[in-house]
Amino acid sequence: MSDEVLKYVGLKLNKMPRFLEYSKPKYKAAKSYDDSGLYKVYREIPVNEIEIFISDTDRTTEISERHRKAISLKDYITNFKDKFEKIINETSVAQIKEIGELCEKLNKNTPYFIKYPKNYLWQIFYSEEDKKYFMLYPSMEGNSSALFYLIKEKLSGNNKKIFVPICLQEPSSDILTFSENTDLENYIWLFTKEWPTTIEVTRKKHTNLSIIGSTRVYGGFKSKYKIELNNRDEALEFYTLTKALFILETQTNYRESITPIITKEGRLGYCYKEEEITIDNLSKFIEKQINAKEQMIADFNKTMKEIKEQNEKLNEEIKLKKETYLMLEKQIVLFLDCRKSFFGKLKYYLKKGQRFKIEIPKEKEKEEPKKKVEEEDDLRHYNSTIEDLVKACIDSSKAENDLKNSEADLKVTQLKKVNLEKKIENAQKYINEIEEHKKSIFEFWKFANKDELTALEQGIEGEEETQRPSLLKTYDLNTEMQDLKIDCDNLVRRKLSTEEQKAVFIARFCMSTINALILEDKLSQEDKLEPEIKEELDKIIESQYEELKLNCNIDIRQEILGNIQDDFTKLKKLKANEHRENQRELYSSLKFNKKTTIDEYREKIKECIKYLNEAYNKITAIAEIPVYYNIDSTEDVKSDFEKYVIGNMDPLKIVQNSSSENPKIGMIDINSEKHLIYLTNIIFYDNFNKTLPSGMDEETEVIIKVKASVETKPKNIYIIIEKNDFDINVLKIDLIKTNI
Q1: For 542-578, how does the pLDDT look when each residue is reduced to its tens digit (9 = 90+)?
Q2: Is residue 59 part of a domain?
Q3: Half-sphere exposure (Cβ direction) of 44: Cα atoms closer than 13 Å
């Protein structure tokens, strides 16, 4: 093996070229970095400018220690020939050729997201003091293909260039300063909630900066993005745009929400209320928003003025009603005092008519204030800055709060008035009752001697309690997704019988037949099953039947053993968990073989539908996590009925399963009343031995009912799909959001 490698590389250990002997360059060792900070500079470098050193360490050793132990290639081979031969034996010509092929690709194109597989093998550094590139190869690394490829190219004498990462190097171009770059990454994080990486790329004497990261876009989709900055002007435009929107969001206390989007070009963009903001329309956006905020302030102030006038009017009415109430209260107090003695009762009885004549005070006429002629403000603004917009946002927020306070004051005043009117009503009823009993001395005497009397004051009846929707448990999908999957599986195990679990498993593969039979039965009951529709439905059922029959290759073991393919002693793995359960098999579960007729198939699916419906009605959502599904725009049978579909909690899996270049994806917001079935581990496996781990390790799919016809207008979003390291596709998605 060693001779083959040496021959391919062209290296003779007994006759080492002098140019492989180097003096160790000075290098200021940086602190340890994670992978995101390790490779932030990629350059195209001539192989002749890269000096090779070997250090008896591994890649995880501190750089300072690796540098201290480093020896030039010639000295290492001379002094540690046995160790070098061991390195050769761990390498193959195939590995060297593989990395050579990768270098050829990299010479032609740069990977879209810059980083590429096995970039860590190069371990190339740059000495600022000596202005030199050097490979600091760790001899304990194991894969030395990059080392021998570099030796081969140096020995060939060609001044070939290779595209490699420079370890622990910070971007130092004139496109953005270090401070600007740090700030820009911080600004982007605010919107995307994920830290981006800035990578400096130098090719053909041209340097650009690429900012790479990922973000969540509308509807729960997540996508990578790339922002390529080729010069200072272009960088300042994007920096200014991002900084302006950062200031707008933070200094308005996040009241003005900016959302990230992926543009048609695959770049990171910003959106405010579904309007994309760019550096070209930023000034226009600022002016438009200032005008809108000032109009809002004017509207708030106008409404607040009306509320204050209404409040003052109510206070005047309350003042008059208080006078009325006090007069009623005096008469009642007089009666209560008189009833304490015999002569007092007699004296009160002998009074003719009511003790007091109640006169409701009249409302004073107000003088109409003189109308002020207000000059209309010119809402047009020119050369407005983000500072002006922030001030307008703060002013509108203050005006809105003042309006809310005025509305609260009005509600308090209205409540006072209602309470006072109720008191007056009760007091008047009480006085009327007294006068009613004064028709007879005996009745009045009996009434006046009662121990319990009608209450003078009565509070307002409480509002009827409204039913509150039950709240679902919330999960952080970044850290608690596994907990959610376990809870879903435990729910399905608890709620569904074995037959229902089996029916759900079958439904995953026979959904077209199930929906066709459900629709056929529905139309038959409504006497709407026309011959043309019946023929279409039969074609759907027959097509799936023929597909099942074509793929049916069960043998005698499956016919006899069914799903029990292994005995209980056989250990299996589901992700990282061991178990002793058998995986369900479609044909055994459905009891389908090549001899099964289409009529028998229909009856088996009808039996499955019965259990599927029972299972569906038993389970409701346990978390407010949207469900996504493919909308088939080519479906022939059009009907406004609820059909079963296979949905997914992961939107990207739905996109990956779609063959369309412009997929139409349905999104259903889940609440506690929505029925669905989670396709958890218990759906895919038997659990006779009770060893099946809980979770959703096979799929994140669900079965859910949706309307067959969709009329909601779709929202267009873009995400990046990686075909390979060099090619990407910016996929346009028509997302239709359905609220339940």
Answers
A1: 999 999 888 887 654 555 445 555 556 678 888 778 8
A2: yes
A3: 19
Cβ atoms of residues 625 and 477 within 8 Å: yes
- Non-local CB neighbours of 296 within 8 Å, separated by 6+ positions: 396, 399, 400
- Contact call for residues 62 and 29 (beta carbons, < 8 A): yes
290 and 350 together in one domain: yes
Instruction: Single out the residue in 260, 280, 300 at which a domain terminates.
Output: 280
User: What DSSP string describes 227-285?
Assistant: EEE-SHHHHHHHHHHHHHHHHHHHHTTT-S--EEEE-TTS-EEEEETTEEE-TTTHHHH
- Measuring CA to CA, which residue among 739, 738, 735 is closest to residue 664? 735
Number of independent structural domains in the chain = 4
| CA separation for the pair 54, 49 (Å, rounded) | 17
166, β-bridge pairs: 124
* Boundaries of domain holding 418: 285-362+380-448
Burial (0-12, 13-18, 19+ Cβ within 10 Å), 715: middle
Residues 440 and 568 in one domain: no
Same-domain check for residues 344 and 269: no
Q: For residue 431, is it within any domain? A: yes
pTM above 0.85, yes or no: no
Neighbours of 108 (CB within 10 A): 8
Is the same domain home to 507 and 551?
yes
Residue pLDDT, tens place only, 153-198:
888 877 889 999 999 888 887 899 989 999 999 999 999 999 999 9
717 belongs to a structural domain: yes
Does residue 473 form part of some domain?
no
Q: Are 164 and 124 in contact (CB under 8 A)?
A: yes
Contact 554, 588 (CB under 8 A): yes
